[in-house]
Amino acid sequence: MDSDKVRISRMQTEPFCDFMNGYRDPAIRPAMRPTLSFKYDDVLFEELELRASADGNDLKYILPDGLELTVKYEFYPEYGVTKWTNYWNNPTDHDSGLISDLYDCDVTFPMRADPPRTRRNSQSTWEPETMILHATNGANVRSDDHADIPVRMWAGDSREFSCTAGRSGMGKAPFFDAEEGGERKNGVLMAVGWTGQWKAVFDRGADTFRMRHGIQDAHFRMHPGESFRTASTTLLVYTEGQVKAHNLWRRYIREEISPFAKSKGARGKQCPFSAIFWGGIHSDRLIERWKKLLAYGLPFDYCWVDAGWYEPLCSETTDGQSAEWGKTGTWEISRKYHPDGYRDVTKFLSSHGIKFLLWFEPERFIRSISEWTEFLYKNDQNEDQVITALNEEKVCNDVIEKISGLIESIPVDCYRQDNNIGMLDFWRCSDARQKDAENRKGTTEIHYINNLWRFWDTLLERFPNLLIDNCCSGGQRIDIEMLSRSVPLWRSDCQCTWDCCPEENQNQNASAARWYPYSGIGYGPSLGDLYSFRSAYTNGMTVRTWEHADAEWEVGAMHEPFDFAKKYFDEYDEIRRYFAMDFYPLIPVSNENTAWSASQYHDQEDNSGIILAFRRALCPYDRALVTPGGLEPGKEYEFTDADTGEVTVCSGDDLIKNGMTLRIDQKRKSLLLKYKEIKG
User: Fold this and answer.
1) Model's pTM, two decimal places?
2) In this structure, are residues 560 and 296 in contact, taking their beta carbons and an 8 Å threshold?
């Protein structure tokens, strides 16, 4: 796919390279069309009488009745990434026209035509090298969370995808890869930048491919003085294959927009390595547990305190506290369990270089406990469980001040925001109660999501060292906008199961790595199984071994193998930086227990990395031939087996040409190879 042949889906189009750069000189391209489409009072956007002006990369349109649309562009040539965001403003004294069929992105790419069907190839087993759209599973508490879903698209085919319940990463996730047929080198990556209910539509022509996305069922007029932004679009057009494209994507996330990007402040360089504890553990007991963990020399850098630290909390047992954690509403620290409001805990941790992570869920509360701010209900005004009316500016300010006060007073190093209630029904019921409801569909959601981002952006501005963990029932709100503000440290609730299936972790790690370099996983509680522990290796890990309040969860109460913990926690801590670097899937993801799993993570800056492989429990093969990526011809590499210490020297030329044979002599065992370039 040649980028200068990519064309937008407008009646008057320009080559994509001109389109992206045309706004730099208004005299040359004063009337370029943005890559969105909508109807305005049932008139197509391209048929409207418009006034257009350009300011650098931004293009501003004034519609016939005065409504303003500003399209803000960003281009990152090092990664080949283009991003745009649409901003809407009604500065008039009257309602705008009706905006409908809104797609914040509407772009068409050339795509290789399918090979012709003939009598010779018409059998059902025929598999031509034709176009594939790769959709992505969301986090659905399933073994295939974050999995790649390839969909073959023939000429004339259309596919529509959307998320579920107003959660951008539930159902399907908002990440797509359209891969051209033939040599499989060309394609385009697309991320939908909307944290609410998005939809994406894909249409295959004979030799084209159209990609559209927007806010599902949006249909509204804007009131006088009303302004907001809608979904952003991030695109990467590639011509050198999927693997390189996804590594450019990972570098873009890592270096430009993630919380760990150099421009984002002093938030560290990688996700936390945490020990997790229930919020109902007494502060003095929590300190005692940490004294023992520190005495064993375990290399944690965060104390993670999850739900159940707030009023009302009455039960002393784990089972009782597990039943009470959902009674959110006051966000007052339980003085029964934490008489000093966690300050004694954070003071102790800070003196030992340990940071503090605390769980919150400010978007959901129970009315019978507290009505500390305004809320949205669904159909029954007497509903006890409701959501915060974050769509209202005053309520957003209330949330900002309440959470900011706790972050500052405790203090909190990582703010963990969960969300355990579907939002979409609340938003749509709120729309239905508005005046002129038929013409206000989607506006509650739009204002809600805008204020959710404003809430987080304000926290990040007020607390330059603060890290935000985006949870939402375990990874159900992962999208490109959230990745620019936070990291998902618990990207699937599959890991809520005790000792989650290690093969599920292997597959989820490999699948999630295609789209985001920074993410975390929960592990445990059992220790001592190296195959299982290494299966959970990713950039962030949370160990659950001492999680709950009962005596059996005290450090050492279950005779945990601390020699194992020290050795392999140190191993993980040494290599975890690599899981944010370039990713090479050495063996395709498989659900079969007869298979191998193998991945490589490579740091292009110092030409080092790791290969992590697993021979599963029923796999009859003790060898696997793989081709490592990222290695350079003319260089030599030293590979060290982390278990045996055996060192092997290989040339980059040989590995690129002939591959590498991995060997694991026993079933259900792992292999960790650490490698580096031999200098000089």
Assistant:
1) 0.94
2) no
